[in-house]
């Protein structure tokens, strides 16, 4: 069975201190283990979520080795659930046909390539930075990746065009780097909205090298330093992203979206206010990105009195996996707050 990439530290889930051995015991104890059940019963993936990729990979291979513990096929569904199931099955087939990378199944100790991604932009006095740290975990005597790690970053624009590929970046053991767009892509000038994809080569474990973004202000008109983490790792789990504070008084909400798939993202977007719902459509090119003010998506929002716009629910209905983040601008304080959804 697959050995987790964090086996050198002894933990699969660092937040809850669940070792890889204990995780396998949990799988043995559960009659029909599923990731939602693991999350509900043991909290796996419920805090920082960085162990989610590993846990799902180990679970998948465990069920292949123990088919008697796999859940039986679901009975035929009807209505919306059936339609969503059919749609998700079609999406997975389209992604497979588009040549998406598959999860690495090599043994933990063998170096491999890791492919991760974040939203990345420079516009309107805001700029994304890439932050990576190469630290040994406290319970491990040495950094499992050795004295240094190397990666390249690739930047795609709002229409899905490839804008640039960085020179190799080396980060030594114990080092943290915060890299600006100019550091990574000196030939990219002016504003852009896009997705940044980080490829680590010959890496034993991601560990602390999980890439983070920081959206910060480059002008004195307002303040911003919002951190957010990677939302892409060679998997295609469904999204169904939602926002429960889209139209709060005195706060303007923006959505950052990067389509990390080589196929279009087409979705219904809706907002609900009590029993009332307004809809619109959103289309994003393959590998394309958007930076959108939520209020601008809905022409019908003007028909709803300002006092009735909160509480509300905003959601994207397409289960296709994309990277989504939300940011709020406080008009009185002139500050930004972010949520890595």
Descriptive report:
This protein has 341 residues and is an alpha+beta fold. It has 3 domains: 7-69, Arc Repressor Mutant, subunit A; 112-229, Hypothetical Protein Tm1070, Chain: A (Sandwich), CATH 2.60.290; 242-339, no CATH class. 16% of the residues lie in helices and 35% in strands. It contains 5 helices and 19 strands. Strands 3, 4, 5, 6, 7, 8, 9, 10 and 11 form a 9-stranded antiparallel β-sheet that branches. A 4-stranded antiparallel β-sheet has the order 12-17-14-15, with no helix packed on it. A hairpin with a 4-residue loop joins strand 18 (323-330) and strand 19 (335-339). The longest helix has 19 residues, at 79-97.
Rg value: 21 Å
Count up the helices.
5
Give the N-terminus to C-terminus distance in angstroms.
Answer: 31 Å
CATH class of the largest domain: Mainly Beta
Portion of residues within helices: 10-25%
CATH fold category name of the largest domain: Hypothetical Protein Tm1070, Chain: A
Classify the beta-strand content into a percent band: 35-45%
The shape is globular
State the secondary-structure class: alpha+beta
Run of helices and strands: EEHHHHEEEEEEHEEEEEEEEEEE
What's the pLDDT, averaged over the residues? Answer: 85
CATH architecture heading of the largest domain: Sandwich
Largest β-sheet summary: 9 strands, antiparallel
How many domains is the backbone divided into? 3
Instruction: Enumerate the spans where pLDDT stays under 50 for 5 or more consecutive residues.
Output: 1-8, 102-108
Oligomer status: single chain
| Count of beta strands | 19
